Amino acid sequence: MTPIDAFLPHYDVHEVHAITIAGSPDAVYRAIRSLDFSRSPVIRCLFRMRGMPSAAIHLERLLQNGFILLTDHPDQFLVLGLVGRFWLPTGKLIPVAPEDFHAAEPAGCAKAAWDFFIEEMRPGRVRLSTETRIRCMDTRSRKRFMLYWRVIGPFSAWIRREMLRGIKARVEAEVSGR
Fold this sequence. Notes:
Elements: E1 13-22, H1 25-34, H2 41-49, H3 59-64, E2 68-73, E3 77-84, E4 110-122, E5 125-136, H4 139-176
Antiparallel strand pairs: 1-5, 2-3, 3-4, 4-5
């Protein structure tokens, strides 16, 4: 069982991406918490296309814009959550307290969980994975979300892979003293 299972064990859509990084779990965790993902032209462009501010896209900014920190275990994992109508241009996010995430099932909405999971393979070598899960609350929202996901899904995957590459570059530059 992975940490994300505790928050969204059943889902309609999921994607998993992983990368191997030369570095420590601590360095990887620090990069996850502090890296400005807008440094990636791909992420900056895709966020701008969605109408989201592209300046300084980091974890704290995501938390200020509707994401919920569900659990955080330094050097191991963190799980974020989100509730809304993601297929609408604004996303129609619904504020939910972390302790209410399990019970939040508003009709016409979807619920998402997104994690970063850090596994030390051996000293100095880490596998970082990210998983995104989405569960729609009813048939109508599921149909709408699936149409949206057909278009957006590949871009979501691209963003996740870019995030992993950015984290890897930050950690490995730090390790090599660049």
